[in-house]
Design goal:
The chain has 568 residues and is of the alpha+beta class. It is 52% helix and 9% strand. It has four domains: 162 residues; 85 residues, no CATH class; 120 residues, no CATH class; 114 residues, no CATH class.
């Protein structure tokens, strides 16, 4: 059950919307389900003689009774309350109880207070109501509704338990501020896919990812097409900043500005400065890396982040979460078109997992920030060949990182953050499957062409290194790709059995969705093998021991392709 509190100036305008047809004729049978005094609240939805003007006058009476100078400018308190998808439909009586409990919990109208604010609850859809109140008590005083949004959320959690509804995750006051109803309505009217607040929050986070200096951060904001205004002290120091979307203006034609702190708690200028100074990056950049190289370089710090999140050092873990968020933001900006939507969704979801009340130690997550910087400097990824394989490699690793983050948050009872990390993992899995399909197919084709003695040799190696998983892996779709990877590693001079034991020891496999894929990318990362086999790659000759490529013994059985090449 989700409450969403906002304030406004026009009681009549809000009532006209609630009793009207809606923007897409979605409002049906609007009527009052509860009120401060049912006999004093005319209901235009049920009483033929009642009008919106009458209802407005009754609600506004305590406000209008005051001298003009004492009337609050924003005197209309509005709180829609919606059940979650899949919840049962509540009756009017139940919705009335919900409304009374919320106005009591928020201080609008406590039980037994006959001088409380006037309010009504209107139902015009099966799954939600709108509570409308005027913010002057009938004795002329103002209500004590400080932290009303937090108190409404807490009461909704209790209502969910009492009514047998879905239990949503409790908040901890570290989430970014959600767009208001007015912001969402304006976005819909103007044809935007989302409110400007959300677009700006993503843009600011992306500008911060891998930034080395404050000046670079502001330069990136401008380059992203945002309006940027810095607050400068007389000394010339920057005290703060605010951003706006071009074309997003108020009724007076002025840009609608959002300070960084209003976008998210960690996007204020002091928090940004702390991030830049705690883990400084070298602004002097060398040659631009290729996307494939940048993605491979990001795997090692991601692996370390996953390991850190499985330990008990909370401050260090929080730092790794922040660094992982920067890496995801960088990947989302440079991803190929086929996966960009999923990666942006993953980065946006994980943004919630980077914030909690746990304090980040001054731990070194510079490696993750450096990786994010490298990804951005490398530019847009092509998504094919070695580029696609390296991207699949880092995405496979990040799935494990986000799952480790979900476990860490769950252990600390951070319900919202844990859910956000799991949501990010879901989007990363989808992006990984799209990215990995082509390189894994090439590996699979390679593995299927291996001579049977070679296949049997590598099968034995898997059985020796992973006795508990061998039968499960042998029947999976990635088996041939794993054999091809082991064959290429052996050709590069590695012992398959020892190599498998090494990569298995790097991290547990029980939480992996696809153990075969995880082993493939670990092997390729550990050995430096190409992330994607080159077109036309043929199986290497059969080997009975680990050899260097140039040491193929004369007695080794050649693959059919090599036999034909020898006869020619």
């Amino acid at each position: 059950m989700v409450p969403d509190i906002s304030t406004g100036r026009r009681t009549y305008g809000l009532l006209a919307y609630l009793y009207g047809p809606g923007r897409r004729d979605e409002h049906t049978d609007p009527h009052i389900v509860a009120a401060w005094e049912s006999v004093l609240a005319p209901d235009p939805g049920r009483e033929p003689a009642a009008t919106l003007k009458q209802l407005t006058d009754r609600l506004d009476l305590p406000v209008l009774a005051l001298p003009a100078g004492r009337r609050p400018q924003q005197h209309v308190w509005h709180c829609p309350v919606r059940t979650a998808p899949g919840d049962r439909l509540l009756t009017d009586t139940e919705w009335g109880e919900v409304a009374r409990r919320i106005v009591h919990a928020t201080g609008i109208a406590e039980h037994g207070d006959d001088q409380a604010c006037r309010w009504i609850a209107v139902r015009h859809a099966p799954d939600h109501i709108h509570i409308v109140a005027t913010l002057k008590r009938q004795d002329g005083r103002s209500p004590r509704h400080h932290q009303d949004a937090i108190r409404a959320q807490a009461e909704c959690r209790r209502i969910e338990a009492d009514f047998g509804l879905q239990r949503l995750n409790p908040g901890d006051r570290t989430a970014a501020k959600r767009p208001t109803s007015a912001e969402r309505s304006k976005a819909e009217r103007t044809g935007r896919t989302e409110p400007p607040r959300e677009t700006l929050r993503d843009a600011v986070r992306q500008a911060l990812a891998g930034a080395a200096t404050e000046d670079e951060f502001f330069t990136r904001l401008t380059a992203a097409g945002l309006r940027v205004e810095q607050r400068i002290a007389p000394s010339g120091d920057t005290l703060g900043y605010k951003v706006a979307l071009p074309g997003d203006r108020n009724r007076a034609g002025q840009p609608i500005w959002f300070p960084g702190s209003k976008l998210a708690p960690d996007l204020s200028l002091p928090k940004i400065r702390q991030r830049l100074t705690d883990n400084p990056l070298d602004p002097e950049d060398g040659p631009r890396p290729r996307p494939a190289r940048a993605h491979r370089d990001a795997v090692t710090p991601a692996i370390r982040a996953a390991a850190t999140l499985d330990q008990d050092d909370d401050g260090t873990a929080v730092a790794q979460l922040v660094g992982t968020g920067e890496l995801l933001d960088a990947l989302a900006q440079t991803a190929p078109a086929a996966t960009r939507t999923e990666l942006r969704a993953a980065a946006r979801a994980f943004e919630r997992a980077t914030r909690s009340h746990e304090r980040a130690a001054r731990a070194d997550h510079r490696a993750l920030r450096t990786a994010a910087r490298g990804v951005l400097r490398a530019g847009d990824a092509l998504g094919r060949g070695e580029d696609g394989g390296a991207t699949a490699m880092v995405l496979s690793t990040l799935v494990l990182v986000t799952l480790a983050a979900a476990r860490w948050h769950s252990a600390h009872h951070h319900a919202q953050q844990a859910a956000a990390a799991r949501q990010a993992a879901h989007h990363l899995r989808t992006a990984y499957r799209t990215t990995a399909a082509v390189p894994l197919r090439a590996m699979r084709n390679h593995g299927q062409r291996l001579p049977e003695p070679v296949r049997q040799q590598h099968t034995t190696a898997v059985g020796d290194a992973l006795p508990g998983y061998a039968d499960q892996l042998r029947g999976g779709p990635g088996w041939d790709a794993l054999l091809a990877t082991l064959d290429q590693a052996q050709a590069a001079g590695h012992d398959p059995t020892a190599l498998l034991k090494t990569v298995v020891g790097q991290r547990e496999l029980d939480t992996a969705d696809n153990i075969t894929d995880v082993l493939i990318w670990r092997i390729r990362h550990t050995t430096g093998l190409p992330a994607a086999p080159k077109p036309g790659t043929h199986p290497a000759p059969t080997r009975t021991r680990a050899t260097k490529p140039e040491e193929t013994p004369a007695h080794t059985t050649l693959a059919p392709t090599e036999q034909r090449r020898t006869r020619r």
